[in-house]
Every structure is written in C-alpha cells, then in structure tokens.
From TrEMBL:
InterPro entries xref list: Beta-grasp_dom_sf, Mopterin_synth/thiamin_S_b, Sulfur_Carrier/Prot_Modifier, ThiS/MoaD-like
Domain of life, per lineage: Archaea
Pfam family for this entry, one: ThiS
Protein name (record): MoaD/ThiS family protein
Gene3D superfamilies assigned: 3.10.20.30
UniProt cross-references to SUPFAM superfamilies, sorted A to Z: MoaD/ThiS
Length: 86
C-alpha cells in the first residue's frame, strides 16, 4: 500500500503517516476518506482537483493530476502553502 505523509496542519491528531491502497492519487485519497473520514481529502481536493495552494508529491515528483499512477510502495507527501511574516 502507498504511504501518505500527513502534515500536522492537515492532521486530526492521529497518525502522521498512513498506508492506503489505490492505483491512482485520487483513489488513494478516496480510500483514505472511506477509512478515516473526508477531512484530509477535503483539505487537498476541491471538485476533484488538487487545490491551488496544496503541493502533492508522489515518490518525490510534484503532481496536480488526480489520475497520477501510484505504486504499491509509493510515498505521497502533502505540502500546504505557508505564508506570513512581514
């Protein structure tokens, strides 16, 4: 199963990494939502597309394609945009 690294800002106090099955990025997030609730999926996706200020990496390569292939041993990282300062 693919491993999703969940940043603290998007987490719900649970595990910071979770293994989820799926052949595409979208399937992985749908399967995660079915098992753990829609919070993470809703934070990353909007109307089936990855939100503008969310960066998703599959095995180190950035993608914004929900149909991007995911292997059994893929590592998925989610990096929300950060802002602030002066």
């Amino acid at each position: 199963m693919a491993t999703i690294k969940i940043p603290a800002v998007l987490g719900d106090g649970g595990a910071s990494t979770v293994e989820v099955a799926g052949a595409t990025l979208g399937e992985v997030f749908e399967n995660h939502a079915a098992e753990h609730g829609p919070g993470l999926r809703n934070s990353v996706f909007d109307d089936g597309d990855i939100k503008e200020f969310i960066n998703v990496y599959v095995d180190g390569s950035e993608t914004s394609d929900p149909d991007a292939p995911v292997d059994e041993d893929s590592r998925i990282r989610i990096i929300p945009a950060a802002s602030g300062g002066r």
